[in-house]
Design brief:
This protein is mainly α and 74 residues long. Helix content is 65%, strand content 0%. Helix 1 runs antiparallel to helix 2.
Length: 74
């Protein structure tokens, strides 16, 4: 899928440089392809194993991080 995106952008850049009338449409569709088709597959692939859970803040992690913050120092 990424190779398709790279080829698509390359063709779009070529058309932009040659002042083709459909160049902006080709580039717009490549951005649409990347953002709405390729990106969700990438996000699913990266986070399907649950490794993201260590980055989510919850009450326990916040209490642990701020433990002792309110104490006055001498």
């Amino acid at each position: 899928m990424f190779v398709i995106f790279i080829v698509w952008v390359t063709v779009g850049l070529y058309l932009v440089n040659t002042d083709h009338e459909k160049a902006q449409i080709v580039m717009g569709l490549s951005v649409f392809y990347f953002s709405f088709l390729f990106m969700p597959f990438f996000i699913y692939y990266r986070y399907r194993d649950g490794k993201y859970k260590k980055y989510i803040l919850n009450d326990e992690k916040l209490m642990k991080a701020f433990k002792g913050q309110g104490k006055e120092r001498d």
